[in-house]
Amino acid sequence: MSEETGAGADDARAWDERLGWAFGLIADDPAARTAALVRLAEAQRKVAEALGRSNEMWLLTRPLGVDEQYQEPAFLRARQRYQQAQRGSLPDGVWSSPVSRDLAMWPGLPYALLFLEWEARYPQEWDRHAKSWGTKQSLIRDVARAHQDEAVKAKLTDLVEIVVRRAYRCKDREYVRVARAVDSADLRGRLDRAVDSDSPWARCQAGYVLWLLDHPDLPNTRHVWQAWVAGQAAALI
What we know:
By secondary structure, the chain is mainly α.
């Protein structure tokens, strides 16, 4: 889906109308999260139904040939309804981000951050209802390259701290990109406290992030991570 025709082209009001309910997924109140999960289940049901109809129309119009099929009004309507349903659900609704303009000005940025915060704060609910490691990875990379204002930097700093203090989850190492993008005395202070904590995960992961902040030329690769875990990181410098 392109920026001009997809969700990336919508304004903030359109995003809020479509996905505003999703902020309940990160609410402290369990009842609010439950209500948002009900909304999500309904949105995902609509996506599944629309996909089924789109697939049905694809089969019915397939004998027309590729060119004629993709001009057939009934098939086009079915595809458009499917795409519209996706935009009101998760993770589908945050799949499209603008590629030709500053992400800080993208109205979908609050929802990208919401999706990442949901995974960070309530991983079991995220796993059960909207697990998508590829979406997590792409959104982390997107927010790391954005020019963040202070509110976004504060949110990303919080996310880095949450992630380094927990047991490793798939794609968590991508948060090194974020840490490098929002490097600050505040972030380093939080990482220092994590290194001094009783949690072996926090000591290892926060130490790794701090080390890479001090060595910005080193790549955040699996090899570098494994060398750090094995206590052989000094050999890489």
